[in-house]
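Hey all, sorry for the wall of text incoming. These are the two entities for the joint prediction.
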Amino acid sequence: MDKNETATVKLTVNGAPHEGRCPPRKLLVDFIREDLALTGTHVGCEHGVCGACTILVNGEAARSCLMLAVQADGAELITVEGLAKDGKLHPLQQAFHEHHGLQCGFCTPGMLLTALDFLRTNPQPSEQEIREGISAVLCRCTGYHGIVKAIAAAAPVLKQS
Amino acid sequence: MKPPKFDYHAPASVDEALALLARYGGDAKILAGGQSLVPLLNFRLSRPAALIDLNRIPALAYIRAEDGEVRFGAMTRQRTIEFSPLVFERVPLLTEATRWVGHLPIRSRGTIGGSIAHADPSAEYPAVLRALDGSVVARGPEGERTVAAAELFQSYLTTSLAAEEILVEVRLPAMPAGAGYAFEELARRHGDFALVGIAAVVARDGERCTMARLATSGTGPVPIRLREAEQILERDGLGDAAIEAAGRRASELVEPDADIHASADYRRHLTGVLTTRAIRRALAKAGHG
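and here's what came out:
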């Protein structure tokens, strides 16, 4: 398609169908925030270093600033808005709450979705493995201790569910 | 919007992708996992007329054992490689190196073909390809050709592939049974660009070293095979003195660059330290053949 054309992007976000139109150069994170009005996904560095924009694409953690919206046509996305159910925090969110896994909250959406994919493939991680797993996301408030504790605490809960 | 304007195509086959590539006459870029290209677009350091996205070509994603090699479709994701039992059985060096490739969400999207074609000198996969004497298959208007690792990497971000060719397959010879291996790396943060990385494979018969393979990342424009350091082990065996000598030789064989993260001298020093560390760890895993 030509650079000045717009394409229709149809996808599923947090279980609900969504549709929008955008030019090919629109980044997925901007599409999610501006076109779908889901602003829980944060934009940080916009070049794949900070991890704030991490979401799940077809079940796998990916940086939404490093994908084009047109590439997500037909995909199933999970964003931070999809974690809490019926007004109840997701067990991982609950653990972040209990263990002071956030202060300003800017990195938290990316942290949560990265940690979810990490725990899916490593359900019983060591502290060192958790630190390596979340090395993908930068937090400038907490010093990471609370985040590591929260993920360690959530691991057995998620393993059961 | 951050990226500059570009035409966008998501062909369903390699033939279709090749036709598009020819149509733009060198002004199009191939989009694989996008974990290096999209940052370049976001910074507008790259301004291609068009992107040709290979992500809608399912035939380019596979891992199979064939002719004593493990063959990877260029679009095989790094996360798939990380967890592949076949890869761990035949080329475990690649499994270990993959854990150093970017961060988890980068590996979800990043591909083996993209990493090798991008030819970042600090990347892990080019070093593994050099260490194992692998090759890539490139397809162009004239058909397919195989390019050996030694002939592939030309300079920073530059390979010997032609503008009208697409890297479609990566081939790694299976490692000999009982060979020990290690990938050592130092980065400022786990998953960040390597200051230096060392891929090592050793096979032993008692104290005798029957095969040594050492390759670097982060030590100059292209990954380096440390052949003279390998020869020290193959000649003098796997005792401490030989390992130390191989490390010293390794640091003499590289011409690293300085940047904001590390001086050239420090990288040279690291090359020696990580080489001895990699050999020792590989040796600990090697069976007595």
